[in-house]
Amino acid sequence: MIDVRNEVHTPLFPTREKFEFTFNPKTYLDDYFGELDDEDSFALQFMASALCGMPKGLLAHEFGGGPTLYSVAALAARAREIHFSDCVQANLEQVQRWLNDEPDAFDWRPYIRLALVAEGALATPEAVAQRATQMRRLLTRLMICDAQASAPLGEIKVQYDLVAAHHCTDVAATNFAEWVQVLRNVSTLVAPGGWLLVSVTTGARLYTVDAAKFHCVDLTPEEVRRGYIEAGYAPESFRMETQVAPDEREYSGVVMAIARKL
User: Fold this and answer.
1) Does 16-260 carry CATH code 3.40.50.150?
2) Any idea what DSSP says for residue 157?
3) pTM over 0.90
4) Segment (H or E) for 142
5) Residue 168 carries which DSSP code?
6) Can you give the residue ranges of every domain in the chain?
7) CA–CA separation, 11 and 15 (whole Å)
């Protein structure tokens, strides 16, 4: 059993408590990950492209990963070890169920298959099973995080070669200035010369999970680029792609970006 840390931090903005008490991970997985769509392909293609030029043996962190493991499926191609964090204990418990291969764990095999396809690898059932085994071996640590804290992992001071933060920085802020502060907080986990990979939604200030409403910041692609630079990333290393969201989503699109820390 992986040790799940329970450090508590005081948030800058009043959102984390609502997540802890109202976010339902099983409903979220069913609503957003029940079927593959173009957004999933976009995310895993971007990650495969961004990672392919990086050396193997990275120490990686999936920050604010919720109850999801699609990104870990991509990170496993280049990582020697992966740590995982979220602000909601129930999300970490969902991840632990998958790591334990429990019968009620969410089935990530379709996403693992998609990650392999994005890498140009064979996606046979055997290859999918092998990547799942690799993910379970590499994902060694689960911990509580707080994107709104200046020390997002509390007393844990590890810095990483690569931090991936998908759809968590934008829900920890309500305006651009707050988002830049969140980005700076998360960036304390990125080693100098390391990389930060972020996904954010566009075109919405609220989203719904199981009838509960959660705030998010509505960022433009230009604001994402500017936020990275203000947070201390090399402009020449910045790379970004956008994708239109499926019609049934509450937001209009997705921005994925990556850059190297100065």
Assistant:
1) yes
2) -
3) yes
4) strand 139-144
5) S
6) 16-260
7) 8
- The pLDDT tens digits for 38-71 are 999 999 999 999 999 999 999 999 999 999 999 9
Phi, psi of 217 (to 5 degrees): -95, 140
Residue found by looking up tokens 């969410």 in the block: 106
From CA 18, how far away is CA 187, in angstroms rounded? 24
Residues constituting the chain: 262
pLDDT in tens, 171-183: 999 999 999 999 9
Whole-number Å distance between alpha carbons of 254 and 5: 31
Both tokens of residue 64? 């604010």
